[in-house]
Amino acid sequence: MSTATLAPANDHEHHGPPRGMRRWLMSTNHKDIGTMYLIFALVMLFLGGASAMLIRAELFMPGLQLLEPDLYNNLVTNHALIMIFGAVMPAAAGLANWMIPLMIGAPDMALPRMNNLSFWILPAAATMLMLSFVVPFFPGGGSQINTGWTLYPPLSLQVGMSMDFLIFAIHLLGISSVLASINIIVTIFNMRAPGMNLMQMPIFVWTWLVTAFLLILVVPVLAGGVTMLLFDRHFGTSFFNAAGGGDPVLFQHLFWFFGHPEVYVLILPSFGVLASIIPTFARKPLFGYKSLVGSMIAIMFIGMVVWAHHQYTIGMSLAAVSYFMIGTIIISIPVGLMVFNYIATMWRGSMTFETPMLFAVAILLMFSFGGLTGIMLAVVPADMQYHDSMFVVAHFHYVLLPGAVFGLFAGVFYWLPKWTGNMYDERLAKIFFWINVIGFNLTFFPQHFLGLAGMPRRIIDYNIMFTEFNMVSSVGAMIFGLSHLLLLYIIIKTIRGGKPASARVWEGANGLEWELPSPPPFHSWTTAPQIK
Amino acid sequence: MTTAEHGHHDYYIPDASPWPIIAMLSVFLLLCGTALAINDVGFGIWLVVIGLIMLSVMFFGWFGDVVKENLTDCYNAQVDRSFRQGMLWFIASEVFFFISFFGALFYIRNIALPWLGGVGYLGATNELLYNQFTAQWPSAGPDNVGGGFTPMGAWGIPAMNTLILLTSGATVTWAHWGLKINSHRQLVAGLGATIALGLLFVILQAWEYSHAYHELNLTLNSGVYGSTFYMLTGFHGFHVTMGAIMLMAIMVRAMKGHFSPHNHFAFEAVAWYWHFVDVVWLGLFVFVYWL
Q1: CB-based contact (8 Å) between B72 and chain A?
Q2: The model's pTM
């Protein structure tokens, strides 16, 4: 590393981290806030994972074993909300907080206090989410949330008080995402080191720029939708009530106008992580930088106008479903382009397979598989068969686990030495990778067959003909779920010690973040680096 | 950004601040309290009150810190740009919040109601459930939820309110001109006029609501017309009220002499916000009242 790029004495040099709780509760430091985001996401990952394991334990055999139907449905709801809003988005935001200022040569995020607010709203929202789960167990607490995370009326109009807690939790999550997105966009536009233009930024920064745009555009629409739900529930409006001239389907449109771009919100940051990892371990520059940027922007625009492919069975006109089908299939072009760019980056590289790279290769394989089943689901007549079956569950877990979660794991392994100053245990990490990936495939691959054979999703009990595949899936889920204890162990072990990491950490790594020592100083780039 | 500018004055990173966590606690109490209160749990309202008090203290404290930092010259031009861009993107998110309600209005008028009236692909709903219903706007739906009502006309108070808000947009710009030529009098007078017009708007809107409830039988429960009418105008009225409060804060600061022709981000942010509620109102006037 070049110490010359580090600042000589200046105003901020003598500000070390504040002591004790103050450092965390009142933080204005992008690294500390990033760390809190990541720890919060890890806690939520275990919470969401535990609910998934309960679901799979119940589905091990036909019949009711562990859970009541309403509790089962509530767990399905919570699993989705916790994983999406509690685990994946905060983890991606944690990476953004940590890495964007390092990558663009900024001293911190543009609006440091607001940054802390975006984080601290999350524990409040998670608490409200937990309250929505707990309230029905109290006398007068009403029924459990049995709608799934999509909260479709009229069912969501009939749930008790817990739905109101959930609606407000979604408002809080929305405020947090919008504030974080504003901060990220402003940081990227206004805080780049002198001389770094937009087309010189690392792809990870680009993916977050696009993600933040999407969030600012779609999250307020979800907030509006659940606000209408709240008013229909308590103040006598008729937005989703046909007797008053409204339409329950309207909520589906509002929800999926948010929900479909949300898929890209979850996936894009992880794809950005891949753009950092693959060139490093292939020891070749990234292939097709401009086309990656173009693909992302195309995904952003097209992704916002194809939402109704989640609702083919509601009875839209032929013209409408045809439009949504064609739009959806067109998205596979830019997405495929991104995948091919990554493959071309690896082509004839001197590849080594450290854990981040193992994850990267696995992601390209498994995400592409999920993409292919996505094209099956995009085709209207075929979707009429697959709709609301376990095939859909298998599809989106193949997209979201490799596409989002594994990308985050890869990023954590890739940057953990930079964050902590210690190398992680490569042998354990590889063991984690293999158990994790095998467990994942064991869990979700059989669900394709279950769905094609006609097993509906979100149902606690099933026909005995589905038993064998469900047993395989449940065993896989236990392996997959428990493997994350190993992840936790590896992370804790790395934080507590290990082989010291050099500034560059990886032999082939390029980018500003590797110019700073590992771990980086409390204030990252107190003097902006010069970009050549 | 030039290097000279940067070297001269570093980007300001504030010290540890208690306000974000107080903000979190206050919205948490506010929302938990609301969830309890609307389900008739008695102590909920107290949480709402505590939450609101904390929220106001937080705004005073947080913005107070920012003002102090600005007056002690902590900020350079780059920090100023961060604030400006942040405000613009905040307004963009607000625009999309309103788009969800306008979208609901368009969907109901152009898709949902014709279906209920028997047109098109889903006409069967009409045949099987609501045989006598003919789609029209305004509508309280096939069951005439909320009873018969008279829709709100466009050319009474709403047209006057349009005029008031447009005028207030002009007065706030006049105040800005005053600020630019360093005319303290013009700045304060312009702000005062804008606040007065804003409050007049809110009062007329309240009077219109009372008229609708008592004489037109147009309530929040009047089917989908009442729902969209009150949600759109209500959220807009809420934003005007917020905007007026922000203008008052800006006027106090203007009277204290906080702004100079080159350093007045807060004034401009509030002015942008005010123009934003202005534009939303034009949409409301055309699509909710007029057409």
Answers
A1: no
A2: 0.94
